[in-house]
Specification:
Blueprint lengths: L2 H20 L13 E5 L6 H8 L1 H4 L12 E6 L3 E8 L4 E8 L8 H17 L14 H18 L6 E12 L5 E15 L2 E16 L2 E19 L4 E19 L7 E20 L3 E13 L3 E4 L5 E2 L2 E13 L1
Parallel strand pairs: 1-2
Antiparallel strand pairs: 2-3, 3-4, 5-6, 5-14, 6-7, 7-8, 8-9, 9-10, 10-11, 10-12, 11-14, 12-13
Helix pairs in contact: 1-4, 2-4
């Protein structure tokens, strides 16, 4: 293989490495601060191309950093080694590294320097993930800048959302709030993560309960399904606040049973629609997720059944309830 082909391959590997390094951070708008850097003794090395390859104004979450918190890089090229020096105001330290000097005629010379500088910045900023030292005085501006980068690092080194999860839920809800009765409810849910904080889900439900009426009672049996979306907001490493909304359909059967043979009981069957929402807390590990939530919603239209001589049981209108869920991710 000739020198030019070898240099092209090296350039490709360096470009791949640069993409991995910069993948630690989320793109922001282009109107951002830039890293200050200088070149010394680097003939035929283009400073503007290094700046372009770093793409710091879009990838290092610098848009929210004050100018005084921007890292400063000095690159000094020698015959055999190139020294890269970083002054990092966020960690209040200076770090250096040396790499073999790229040849000016090599394809990818600027890429080599760009990825080396990027890795140095990332290595310095990883210190921000350590617990802060006690009794360390610092300005609010510096503390805010450190938190900006700390959040960006944590968001990228945390495990990526699991694509799918399967879970079960057990709970219940109170219906016909003017004269409430309780229905127990079981669910089977399949969910898919679509964004780090968002997931879509579909679920099948079965529900049963009994409402007392005089003389007798009314048995209720419901089967249904729903689709919806859920949003989560991280509180701690394992605990999240969650909110969700869903729309569904129900098949309902009401059967009145009179304790007096002379009293007529009525039966009813029908289809209904539902809109529901809920909020709660969830604890999760790598694969297991446990959640508790409060829910409310509305069912329409009315399905009614009962025992003559007392109010009908109406499966419609506003309801409130709660649920506990267990899910496994894969």
């Amino acid at each position: 293989m000739d020198n030019r082909s070898q240099s092209q391959n090296n350039g490709g590997r360096v470009a791949f490495g640069l993409s991995l390094c910069l993948a630690l951070f989320s793109p922001l708008n282009a109107a951002a601060n830039t890293v200050s850097f200088t070149l010394a003794g680097c003939e035929e090395i283009r400073a503007d191309k290094i700046s372009q390859l770093l793409t710091l104004e879009q990838t290092l979450s610098l848009a929210k950093l004050p100018t005084r918190s921007m890292p400063r890089i000095a690159i000094t090229c020698g015959p055999k080694e190139t020294t890269i020096s970083l002054q990092d105001p966020l960690t209040r330290k200076t770090v250096m590294r040396s790499i073999p000097s790229p040849q000016s005629q090599d394809v990818g010379s600027e890429r080599t320097l760009a990825i080396a500088a990027s890795e140095l910045i990332v290595a310095s900023w990883m210190e921000l993930l350590l617990p802060p030292r006690e009794n360390t005085a610092q300005s609010p501006e510096l503390a805010g800048a450190q938190q900006t980068i700390r959040n960006a690092l944590q968001a990228r080194i945390e495990p990526q959302p699991t694509q799918w999860s399967v879970g079960v839920g057990v709970g219940g809800r109170a219906r016909q709030l003017a004269r409430p009765f309780w229905l127990w409810r079981a669910r089977l849910r399949v969910a898919r993560e679509v964004l780090p904080s968002w997931r879509l889900f579909g679920e099948a439900t079965a529900e049963s309960g009994r409402a007392s009426r005089t003389p007798g009672h009314v048995n209720a049996l419901l089967f249904g399904g729903a689709v919806g979306a859920a949003f989560s907001l991280r509180i701690t490493q394992a605990l999240t606040f969650e909110a969700e909304a869903a729309f569904g359909a129900l098949y309902t059967r009401l059967a009145g049973e009179a304790s007096d043979a002379s009293v007529l009981a009525t039966h009813a069957e029908g289809a209904s629609g539902e809109a529901m929402t809920g909020v709660g807390l969830a604890w999760s590990s790598k694969r297991l997720r446990v959640a508790l939530a409060l829910e409310t919603g509305v069912t329409f239209p009315t399905v009614a059944g009962g025992v003559n001589g007392d109010d009908e049981v109406l499966l419609s209108g506003i309801w409130v309830g709660g649920v506990g869920r267990f899910a496994l991710s894969f």
